[in-house]
Amino acid sequence: MDYITIALPKGKLFKRSVELLEKVGYTAENLSEDSRKLVISNDETKVRFIITKTVDLPTYVEYGAADIGIIGKDVLLEEQKDVYELLDLKYGKCRLMLAVPEAMQKPKITDYAHLRVATKYPNCAKEYFDNLGIQMEIIKLNGSIELGPLIGLSELIVDIVETGTTLKENKLLEVDSIYTATARLIANRVSFKLKFERLHKLVEDLRRVMQEEGK
Ligand code: PRP
User: Fold this and answer.
1) What CATH number is attached to the domain comprising 131?
2) Which residues in the chain come in under a pLDDT of 70?
3) How far is the CA of 65 from the centre of ligand 1 (A)?
4) How far, in Å, is the centroid of ligand 1 from the Cα of 102?
5) What ligand 1 atom has the least distance to the C-alpha of 142?
6) pTM of the predicted structure, to 2 decimals
7) Same domain (yes/no): 150, 191
8) What pLDDT score does 37 carry?
9) CB 3.0–4.6 Å: which of 2, 137, 187, 206 could bond 116 by disulfide?
10) Cβ of residue 174 lying under 6 Å from some atom of ligand 1
11) What are the CA-CA distances from residue 137 to residues 77, 99, 125, 173, 202 (Å)?
């Protein structure tokens, strides 16, 4: 039997992803986000886990370095990789928001035209502003987006909001919700055909566990 290689993202989705996979028999010893070992195998069940940076995960799956992976829909929409989306896992719910410092609030979204927006999601942000018919200067950052307006790098931000705590702590107001995202199970297109039986069973088992948990 061939190994199934599963890519797991570091960060907010990691813990729940490991828990869920364990419930359907996909687990390995010392599977931890802090592991120095980047490939963790279970030779008995023929499963191999790789732990990647969130933004890189769809690339590993697109190229078949991993057969499947778990990743937020936000990253899928931003990265636009050619992968199969197999299942909405429902956890990790968050929103992509346009936000502004309280002091900068304007009556309409179009009033913000031509200002600078800091974001980790330049493609999603561009599409959003294009649909509104307004041009913005989009500044790509890789983290701590809220810092942008605080120090005058940008007037606005487009960022992920989960609990709203980060926005509140930095005195930012939500202007508009761009979309809602949750964790998704994705697969490499070729792997899904070649390892169909095992992967199909995995999807069905995950569906059953989610149903039993009332999700
Ligand atoms: C995300 C996001 C916000 C924060 C929102 O950042 O970019 O900063 O979480 O969560 P909250 O609404 O629950 O406060 P993440 O922790 O992924 O780190 P990063 O900013 O360094 O990317």
Assistant:
1) 3.40.190.10
2) none
3) 28
4) 19
5) 22
6) 0.94
7) no
8) 86
9) 137
10) no
11) 20, 15, 10, 20, 43
